[in-house]
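seq as requested:
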Amino acid sequence: MSIKLFAMISLLLVCFLSGGCASSRGFDSSLKSIVKPYRFSMVKWESRAIPDEVNRLVFGRHEKVDDAVRVVTSYFPLVEQVKTLNSTIEAINRGEEHGDLASLKAKLSALQEQKEALQNTVARIIVGQIKENLAQQGIFNPFDKHIRLKVIFPPLNFKLEEPPHLLVISPRDRIESVREIVLEQSIGLKDIEDIEAKVDKLGVSSLVVELGGFAGTYPNFVTNEGSLRFTLDTVAEEWLHQYLVFKPLGFRYLLDLAGVSRNYEIATISETVAGMVSKEIGSIVYERYYSGLTIGTTEKETTDSEFNREMREIRKAVDEYLARGEIEQAERFMEQRRQYLVSKGYHIRKLNQAYFAFHGTYADSPTSISPIGVELKQLRNQITSLKDFLDTVAAMTNRQDLKESVK
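struct tokens:
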């Protein structure tokens, strides 16, 4: 990897994190003024994170954990208890439940202290377990065909911390992510709804997404409110995104994110591959260390057939509305179906073109109707080695490459 290419990648990352490198137009100017107070500052965050990492490397590298599995399995039930207590306190504040707020808040504070005391140790343990599994799969770095060093690169590291939010923008007349802007973690629901309302007035469809992980910083962010299995998958996925940047597929996805060369199919392939490979890695790690153990979970799984079927039908119907130019009808339909899903226990805050544009890049999800997910699964079934599958797809530069590989 030449210095010139590395510099180009760095520049593109900065462009992405600042909201894109596209030339300023009237729309861009209005958009920038809306999001300016809420932008995530990478410089500010790294100025805090890097000294912490240096301190850890210098003074903490020889720390040993006697019972790593026990530490991890004691952490995630705390995550669930904190979330449950927060929900109870919020319900009491809304007048929906009764309880001793002072007592509950004291208990919450104690649990949060226990949770925070374990976070860095848990992250270090998980990093070690995933690195060991990557090595067993023969996955070390993007250059191992040319430089045969068995070193994990990019360095695998993450923080269990609330990730930034992401503002996703799609045109109203089609489903496609045309802009993504990273927003700070601290914004609340009122600010989110205000941002979306103002952006929508620019004639587009917008959605502020709560991310589960974020690969645009070092260390990566991974939410501190997820289950163990979700955390394993997400840590691996965010690292894979950084790994793929040094491959043709990931580099083209970076160009898409930066607004330099939009390619929704490349974005879909890259996101789906990272998700597929990370789930395999997460599954192996989970089965090796945590199979059979009782560990609390925190997120409602939406993998049942009713939800999947409903989301696919909604997506198909919306595409048909938009193909006929019936934008308002499509938006009314999405809101009606959203309310139906809420009545069934699936609490989707906002269902619009931007929602499908964001979630649709995961071609194996129910919100996508792309055949890319099926093709990638077919290709994975044809290739025995996980590393060979990753190498094959990472070298792709367009959708046609995927079609030919499947053939």
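The chain is about 60% helix and 5% strand.
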